[in-house]
Amino acid sequence: MKLLMALMLLLPGTAFAASAGTPLDLTNSAVGYIALVIFVGAYALVMMEEQIHLRKSKPVLLAAGLIWLLLGFVYSNAGKIEIAQTAIEHNLLEYAELMLFLLVAMTYISAMEERRLFDGLKAWIVGKGYDLRQLFWITGWLSFFISPIADNLTTALLMCTVVMKIGGNNPRFINIACVNIVVAANAGGAFSPFGDITTLMVWQAGIVEFTQFGALFVPSVVNYILPAFIMSLFVPKEQPDVVQEFVELKRGARRIVVLFLFTIVTAVGFHGLVHFPPVIGMMMGLAYLQFFGFYLRKTLPNSLARKRALAQAKNDEAALRRLGSVIPFDVFRRVSHAEWDTLLFFYGVVMCVGGLSLIGYLSSVSNVMYLQWDPIWANTLVGILSALVDNIPVMFAVLTMQPEMSLGNWLLVTLTAGVGGSLLSLGSAAGVALMGQARGMYTFFGHLKWAPVIFIGYVASILCHLWLNSGAF
């Protein structure tokens, strides 16, 4: 406590001379510097997650608490605690909307996984007998088109499982295929509000309408197809040895996909028709899944009885064993399987960036990037920063700055923040997850050697957007 009071005495006198309704300028104060050091230190631990095995949510949660504790003492001492309270409540509301939206989406994805929908897709791909180059393109395009709905992280993990199952004894192929999947999943997520957290944030903020994201489709295709074509030249047309596998989808698997699509329509409807936050529609969509789960549980005994009679008639022992291990569908168990580390990490990032914004650092950065520079160059740099740091805090910082930009520039920063993370394996959640799943075969340096090729796609996608959507600038 004494240390905090001493630090407050080091604040410049001009900070306390501000008017009652004006936030304090703490950018050149000891508290501001300490907050910056806390955030940088926390993010250094986040970037070393794979090496030290410390979940990324822990350091940012601690950093968020420390930064706002410092701000609370400073603003209380200055008699301006209402300003800090308003700021923290605003950031909490921002987080709550995004967290509940993501929670519903994650619950649906978990439900599809539990109903073995992804296992069925994986078995179908493996059983087709494609050679390695065909598999390279198939997993890439599937990653590109699934990620706009199922998010880039889930899509990348699914396709990586396919690649490892087929090319398990070929680490060179697994590395290049994983690079391809990361690039495809990030590119596919850039033209859909559901494809990445950054696009979701832009949509939730009301800056870009749902249908306007479609303008990024062709630039996203360019971002993926150019590096994929070059990398495919280094993939042999070998025929891998695979084992055929039959996967029986659990009851209701396809209907859950339909409910998820209907949930997306509901969220878009709430936003477009009555101008409510999309999260209201997503929470309503969770009710669809809950009612369907209730139906599955109530009708389970009759369904099992029919299947058991059919299996006994066919003398199918394997089917009888499967029926004996059936677990009733439980929506709340699916909720518990959501990626809570990601959700809590997101909370820490939102609160840390919100604290740095109240200090005044984001205004300073915004004045340099968006007033002194051309916004096109600033937004191009945002994509490169997202490869070094992470696109979530970078995009949230841009949204917090709220620079005056045209629709074309907001679409540009959405594109660059989404696909810029593909430049490095640590630049996106998909890359980090695949390094863990394909440990030793897909590595940081294995991805890095393809960075120049990926950068060609990055630049080409920006030029494509500037050309195709020139009327939006």
TrEMBL record:
Residues 1-17 form the signal peptide. Residues 43-418 form the Citrate transporter-like domain. Belongs to the NhaD Na(+)/H(+) (TC 2.A.62) antiporter family. It comes from the Bacteria. Its main location: membrane. Keywords: Antiport, Ion transport, Membrane, Signal, Sodium, Sodium transport, Transmembrane, Transmembrane helix, Transport. Coiled coil: none annotated. It is a multi-pass membrane protein. The keyword Transmembrane applies. Pfam families: CitMHS (PF03600). The chain crosses the membrane at residues 27-47, 59-75, 95-112, 173-194, 214-235, 256-273, 279-296, 343-364, 376-398, 410-430, 450-468. It comes from Enterovibrio qingdaonensis. This is Sodium:proton antiporter NhaD. InterPro entries: Cit_transptr-like_dom (IPR004680), NhaD-like (IPR045016). PANTHER family: SODIUM/PROTON ANTIPORTER 1-RELATED (PTHR43269), SODIUM_PROTON ANTIPORTER 1-RELATED (PTHR43269:SF2). NCBIfam families: NhaD_1 (NF038006). It is found in: Membrane.
